Amino acid sequence: MLMDTKRKTAVVCGAGGFIGGHLVKRLLERGIEVIRAVDIKPVGYWHQVSDDVENLSLDLKERHNCLLAVEGADLVYQLAADMGGMGFIENNKALCMLNVLTNTNMLLAAKECGVDRFFYSSSACVYNADKQGSVNASPLKEGDAYPAQPEDGYGWEKLFSERMCRHFEEDFGMICRVARFHNVYGTHGTWIGGREKAPAAICRKVIEAKVSGSREINIWGNGQQTRSFMFIDDCIHGTELIMNSDIETPINLGSSEVVTINNLVDIVEEIAGIKLRRTYDLNAPRGVNGRNSDNSMILDRLQWEPSIPLRIGLEKTYRWIEEEMASRVVRSAA
Ligand code: NAD
Ligand code: GDD
After folding, report:
1. Averaged over 300-316, what is the pLDDT?
2. Is 60 close to ligand 1, i.e. is its CB under 6 Å away?
3. Ligand 1 centre from 195 Cα, in Å?
4. What ranges in 33-123 are assigned the alpha helix state H?
5. What is the mean pLDDT of the chain?
6. pLDDT for 38-91, tens place per residue?
7. Which of 14, 144, 183, 213 could bridge to 79 as Cys pair (CB 3.0-4.6 Å)?
8. What is the pLDDT of residue 2?
9. Looking at residue 223, what DSSP letter applies?
């Protein structure tokens, strides 16, 4: 069923995070009334805070907080999750699995409050590891999630919660839309602290090497592993399209521009105007060897796919992280 978004009200969960913060801004631009933006973090720690929205700090692992969050909303965007890049998910599997409390209680609250639609942000980490063993692995199609052998911890929880959405739709008639995000990067995201993903981490490391004069960068793994990276604007546009669509099964939302991590470093070095000596940490968290998004389904169903070139998105991300790092230096000197 296609959705008429006029006069709809929305709640965004995980709004203090990277994607949620951008989503709130976009929904407001579209004229959708965002009645509530919710995150476990105190509002002062959110990446972006929007005016004219009720910004609430609530732990959505708790059922009563989920009811407070969704009350009166037509549309629920459930992005809240304890997560991060490989450095976080490989070392915090129990915390990642505990996201199941948030997803379960959010679905129950949405059902109880009779919301029109529920969006769930799944991940490419649901895909079977055997399909990602080679750096030249074929792009992942939606069917490649089964037989199930997802990323330990984080991926299992995502796969389980996807299926919960499916059964809430089948058994309770609740309309659920599920996107499998592939590595998303951009401005106003995490770039330091241990949860950052490769694009932001590499930008930060290149800037650090440039500013300190060390001229050296440490890369996790051997640099030959492959990924595709989706710029935030494509992620937000795709999220809107999928939420408004009649697509009842989980669908890839990712770029199909595949690069090695060494290629990623090349591009960031070019943006920075510097060449660095590379060292490789073969014991660091590395994840799968090769991952890319097969976009046949999204092209077929929506006649659209993420297309912002990595070079363009990385330039914006690099400049933003550069400004963030400079303002930290100014603040700590003051
Ligand atoms: P993020 O960490 O920046 O944002 C997630 C937000 O959820 C955080 O601000 C966090 O404080 C909040 N949160 C965590 N536990 C909560 C709880 N119990 N109650 C309320 N809020 C809670 O991450 P993001 O990159 O914006 O990701 C958003 C969603 O997309 C997540 O579900 C994530 O798993 C999924 N996803 C992201 C990527 C990516 O590359 N960024 C890839 C695949 C899937
Ligand atoms: N984070 C990070 N930091 N990764 C690095 C670094 C670094 O300094 N240097 C090299 N890498 C390598 C990692 O070892 C990994 O092989 C690759 O870059 C990508 O790492 P991440 O961006 O951290 O994660 P990912 O692509 O393996 O998985 C991410 O994307 C999924 C969706 O596609 C994670 O964010 C998952 O949580 C997410 O669901």
Report:
1. 98
2. yes
3. 11
4. 63-70, 86-89, 93-97, 99-112
5. 96
6. 999 999 999 999 998 999 999 999 999 999 999 999 999 999 999 999 999 999
7. 14
8. 63
9. S
CA 163/CA 174 separation, integer angstroms: 13
The CA 226 to ligand 1 mean position distance, Å, reads 23
Answer for the pair 299, 181: CB distance below 8 angstroms, yes or no. Answer: no
Q: Which two tokens stand for residue 46?
A: 């959110």
Tell the residue nearest (CA) to atom 11 of ligand 2.
220
Q: What is the ipTM of this complex?
A: 0.99
For a mutational test of ligand 2's pocket, the pick from 197, 219, 229, 253, i.e. the residue with the most ligand atoms closer than 8 A to its C-beta, is 197
Average pLDDT over residues 21-45: 96
Quote the pLDDT of residue 331: 72
Ramachandran region of residue 287, left (φ > 0), alpha (ψ -120 to 50) or beta?
Answer: left
User: Which residue segments constitute the domains of the chain, with CATH numbers given?
Assistant: 9-185+230-253 (3.40.50.720)
> From the CA of 261, how far away is ligand 2's center (Å)?
9
